[in-house]
Specification:
Length: about 625
């Protein structure tokens, strides 16, 4: 650290205190990233004030003007004089309040930070007051408080944002991009609080004006279309360990190729959290890696169990018991899909299978990511079309000149006879084999490449977890197989024994350090049973996979069995009859991916082939 001296030789300190104006601008940099940040803070204040209606108006992407009007409780003259002071807040009176927050905003930094980098005017009136009050600030320098006439509530105008911090303005995007971010921010709050009216206005006019409703599905439909809203499955409400999960999801066949329709609201606060995203995918029991589920997730959590004070803009939170939150989300999603499948079976509906899920609607830019110049792209994308039904037809061999129907095992014939609706107009025709376990088929949309290993992984998994359809039969070994255990594996083995039994293994301890295996599931082809069992125990003992972190330990256990068995099987035997393998795969509840989310088959639509050749 360099020291300085004045003319008298007195040493001057290098460290000094920033003046209030400079400190306010530095603080503003943490809270006010762009115009959408200002809108977020002001709308959250309106929600905390008990507003029933919020109207947001912007000009030039929010740089020239941001105007937020609400009909909330308003402020007294004394409160208005304090609200723009740094650290002023009505939400916290003691340290413990930080960990019991139920309000949207609480730091006491938003208004002073916004005022420091703009010309701001606040007018407010309580319903019981005869007149309102107004205060004007220029870069944090306030004019004298004065009386004004205004409707009950609070009305805030922010003009010339970042006028005194030009470096910050240089980092803003185009007006169209900032418009899109601002609109997205208001939509987030409108989705989180359907019981409130929200309006958003820009230079082009009223972008949306949605009335208050008690039906969240209606609010979703107003933004993303009634067709999507009607397909939504209401999540099975789940309450466990202080975590309450509600909301909506779309079935797997409605998955999208981006994350734009993924919304998480924590106690009404829009948040981003990778752990919850992963929990939703896990609730599906596996998800294709290049596709993304659609969901609108509401989490109501005891305030003491979550820390919302870890991010200046409050986009990220820290859960005190993350495992409880993840388990509740997985349980809710999985339970909903189970109920949906049961309802379909009861009503006699056939599940729809599509190897190429429909693209997301092109007329909505609903995520901060890639919003860019979304306004100019909205009218260029083709409308979404309904995918054709892909239920399994009678399979026929292409290389058979007489086009004879595929000969199925007796059990399959019986099933098809009992369920005549299983036939449909979506044929798969076998073309040939590629090296390294791949089969190529043709359907009405193009080509489909099937991975035999991945297909077997999904089939084995569903045979294990779907025992309500057909119980797993145990095949008795000619002679028991013994596996020596490490002393460190004892606790893990005790956990795994009932899971092995449920999966169709006949196992038990033989002494303190030896596992005796007398039978295996009948549909598994295992040459080295002792090696397989030892590998399974090792998988769960070395910490690679933890059973206690999952909603259903058996599903995780079955997934590991499926992975291990599929890798050990001789896939060439299955590829001798690829149509039979495809038939078994399409009978699965989720045929598109393995339990780990890896694809089982990859489509190459004819439209993609044409597109690539036209590009030459």
């Amino acid at each position: 650290m360099t020291q300085h001296s004045d003319e008298t030789g007195t040493e001057q300190p290098t460290i000094h205190l920033m003046d209030d104006a400079l400190a306010s601008r530095v603080a503003a940099g943490e809270v006010v990233e762009r115009p959408a940040s200002v809108i977020k803070e002001l709308v959250e204040n309106s929600i905390d004030a008990g507003a029933h209606s919020v109207r947001v108006e912007i000009a030039r992407g929010g740089v020239a003007l941001i105007k937020v009007d609400d009909d909330g409780g308003g402020m007294s003259r004394v409160d208005l004089a304090l609200c723009t002071k740094s650290h002023a807040t009505s939400k916290i009176t003691r340290f413990e309040d930080l960990y019991e927050q139920r309000s949207m905003g609480f730091r006491g930094e938003a208004l002073p930070s916004i005022a420091a980098v703009s010309h701001m005017t606040i007018s407010t009136r309580r319903a019981r007051d005869v007149e309102g009050s107004c205060i004007i600030s220029h870069g944090g320098e306030e004019e004298e408080l004065r009386a004004t006439g205004c409707s009950p509530g609070t009305h805030i105008e922010v003009r010339e944002l970042f006028y005194n911090t030009p470096a910050r303005r240089k980092f803003l995007k185009s007006t169209e991009t900032e418009n899109a971010h601002a609109e997205h921010q208001v939509r987030l709050h409108a989705l989180a609080f359907p019981n409130m009216r929200f309006a958003f206005v820009n230079e082009s006019g009223v972008a949306f004006d949605v009335a208050a409703t008690q039906n969240p599905r209606q609010r979703i439909g107003e933004f993303f279309g009634q067709e999507l809203a009607e397909k939504l499955l209401r999540l099975r409400p789940t309450l466990a360990n202080g975590v309450h999960v509600t909301g909506f999801i779309l079935p797997l066949n409605e998955a999208r190729r981006n994350r734009r329709l993924q919304y998480i609201f924590l106690n009404g606060r829009p948040i981003e959290d990778k752990n919850i995203l992963r929990a939703v995918r896990d609730g599906f029991g596996g998800f294709p890696t290049d596709l993304h589920p659609v969901f609108f997730l509401n989490l109501d959590i005891e305030p003491a169990l979550v820390d919302v004070n870890v991010h200046p803009a409050k986009r990220e939170v820290r859960f005190r018991r993350l495992s409880d939150v993840v388990s509740a989300v997985i349980e809710s999603v999985a339970g909903t899909l189970t109920d949906h499948a049961r309802d379909d079976r009861t009503s006699g509906k056939e599940p729809r299978f599509s190897t190429d899920p429909p693209p997301p609607p092109a007329d909505h830019a609903d995520s901060p990511a890639d919003l860019g110049d979304a306004a100019t792209r909205r009218h260029e994308a083709p409308p979404e079309t309904e995918p054709p039904s892909a239920t399994l037809p009678p399979l026929r061999l292409v290389n058979d000149p007489e086009q004879q129907e595929l000969e199925l095992p007796p059990a399959e014939k019986t099933s098809r006879t009992a369920e005549p609706k299983a036939a449909a107009d979506f044929p798969f025709r076998f073309w040939g084999l590629l090296p390294d376990r791949f089969a190529v088929f043709e359907n009405s949309e193009g080509l489909v490449v099937l991975s035999a290993t991945a297909a077997r992984e999904r089939i084995i998994f569903e045979q294990l977890v779907g025992q309500h359809k057909q119980p797993v039969m145990t095949q008795q070994l000619l002679s028991p197989v013994f596996t020596e255990l490490d002393a460190r594996d004892a606790a893990v083995v005790k956990e795994l024994l009932p899971l092995f039994t449920r999966a169709g293994f006949r196992v038990g301890l033989f002494g303190a350090k030896t596992l005796r295996v007398e039978g295996v599931p009948g549909f598994l082809k295992l040459d080295e049973v002792d090696v397989f069992v030892a590998d399974m125990i090792k998988t769960f003992s070395v910490g690679e996979v933890r059973l206690k972190r999952t909603r259903d330990p058996f599903e995780l256990f079955a997934g590991r069995i499926a992975i291990s068995c599929a890798r050990r099987e001789d896939t060439s035997a299955w590829l001798q009859n690829p149509l039979q393998l495809l038939h078994e795969l399409l009978r699965c509840d989720i045929p598109y991916c393995t339990p780990r989310g890896k694809p089982t088959m990859i489509p190459l639509p004819l439209s993609e082939v044409k597109r690539r050749f036209q590009a030459l």
